[in-house]
Predict the 3D structure of the following.
Amino acid sequence: MRSKRARDEPRLHSIVEPWLDMADRAVYLLVAVLFLVAALAMGGYSVAVFVRHIGSDFPLDIVTFINDLLLVLIILEVLGTVRSYLLTGTTSLTPFLYIGIISATRRILAIGAASTLGGATTATAFNHQMIDLGANGGVVLALALALFLFGRDRPSEPAPPAAAPPPAE
């Protein structure tokens, strides 16, 4: 004979689970809205800073603006992942690979700007920048390879059926 506790567990689960699912979705929705606000705020800030400093050091302003826009792209990729979870209930590895590539690209851009604008004043600083540049370049290549391999594992669309040959006369 089953105990009262064992009989109540399925009923309790059927009551609690919908509430937990709804709370989970609500938190994800709140996070999605906050990511959207962050992306809009960062985009607006980037444009405002770029316009305000347009006459000073233009190459540095362009690099900073591009760097900020890449940060907006990272935020939007994370937002896309949250949206995908809200729609399907699952997540994917692909957006995180893109985020890693964009992040490493941001760092490469920052190193390139620093070295071009005289950021490395000593040979040791220059060597550290080159090691950092090589490591981030390796990260981009490794993540691009992972994206390629990950894309190959996905089942492709079934090919349309071949047209039947014309009947022989």
In short: The mean pLDDT is 84. The chain has four helices and no strands.
